[in-house]
Amino acid sequence: MGKSKVLVVGGTGYLGKRIVMASLAQGHATYVLRRPETGLDIDKAQMLLSFKQRGARLVEGSFSDHRSLVDAVKQVDVVICTMSGVHFRSHNLLLQLQLVEAIKEAGNIKRFLPSEFGIDPARMGDALEPGRVTFDEKMIVRKAIEDAKIPFTYVSANCFAGYFVGNLSQMGTLFPPKENVHIYGDGHAKVVFMDEDDVATYTIKAIDDPRTLNKTLYLRPPENILSQRELVEKWENLAAKNLQKISISSDDFLASMKGLDYAGQVGVGHFYHIFYEGCLTNFEIGEGGEEASKLYPEVKYTRMDEYLKLYL
Ligand code: NDP
Ligand code: GO6
């Protein structure tokens, strides 16, 4: 069996561009959906052209033209959707359902990976408002996929390092704090941190793998399972300095939702489940799941002390 042809929907986004690059690097014929222009987005245009230069094929298609989506999907074997999560919320649900409809009609897709890449939504039935919208919508997309009998892999990618590591998991910033660091509760809940390029590498590894068919792929490489305190300690060792730790009670943390914009409120809910409840690691991966670093031991995933060096 040859390598599958891959279509990336959302290919110019934060994760999508890494998925495109990983697909090319692993030798897949790679197609990237090019949506109609809505203005002079020169960075998006240049990125699409750089993909083309590296061998990707740009496929024109629009969510307002069902036929164009079906035609795009018909050219490939695998579809990976990396459409935005919280930034344009219920819109994302409708668009992903349209994509599922197109895949169903095309009838040729051997694997579909919807835009998940975070906390496993199937475990978040009791999540807090308003953050739970993320999980509820991902579950609606799952149901549509499974009802249509489309072969799938769900990727639970845990915490992207760009949002959770460089800032020592401080909300509202992307670089490390200089003096004080807020510690969530006792700071001992185990979290999983992932370099985004590794998320993409594991994702592409999974698409032709029968072991991940109709399963959830959890990215949980052992050396990247760390508590917030362990993460902070790695930074303190690298930077050769100590930060003052300020512990935040769960009540105070939840109260901080007031006054934040919608995305901030969603974020507080997510951080709460991750850092106070330990939702990324408080379960064993059972039937219906596989762990990526076990399936693909050849991948040399980035450790977080290595990752943090960039911030020195
Ligand atoms: P981005 O916000 O970077 O957006 C990705 C793509 O969404 C864009 O490039 C664009 O596609 C598409 N898009 C945006 N608006 C529209 C629209 N109105 N109509 C059609 N397409 C649109 O997404 P991320 O890479 O941040 O998120 C991808 C996935 O990863 C999400 O499911 C998110 O929940 C998850 N995530 C997980 C994180 C973690 O820590 N685990 C962190 C961040 C995200 P195009 O390229 O075609 O223009
Ligand atoms: C990332 C964020 C960082 C929010 C997930 C607010 C879905 C997931 C780990 O878009 O809301 O400061 O699982 O002030 O399943 C955002 C979201 C993180 C980034 C979480 C995410 C993670 C989405 C912030 C902030 C750094």
TrEMBL record:
Pfam family name, one: NmrA
NmrA-like domain ranges (all copies): 3-308
CDD domains documented for this protein: PCBER_SDR_a
A GO biological process held by the record: lignan biosynthetic process
Keywords assigned: NADP, Oxidoreductase
A GO term, aspect molecular function: pinoresinol reductase activity
Source superkingdom: Eukaryota
This protein's record includes keyword Oxidoreductase: yes
Keyword Ribosomal protein: no
Family: Belongs to the NmrA-type oxidoreductase family. Isoflavone reductase subfamily.
Protein name: NmrA-like domain-containing protein
Organism, as annotated: Carpinus fangiana
Lineage, highest ranks first: Eukaryota, Viridiplantae, Streptophyta, Embryophyta, Tracheophyta
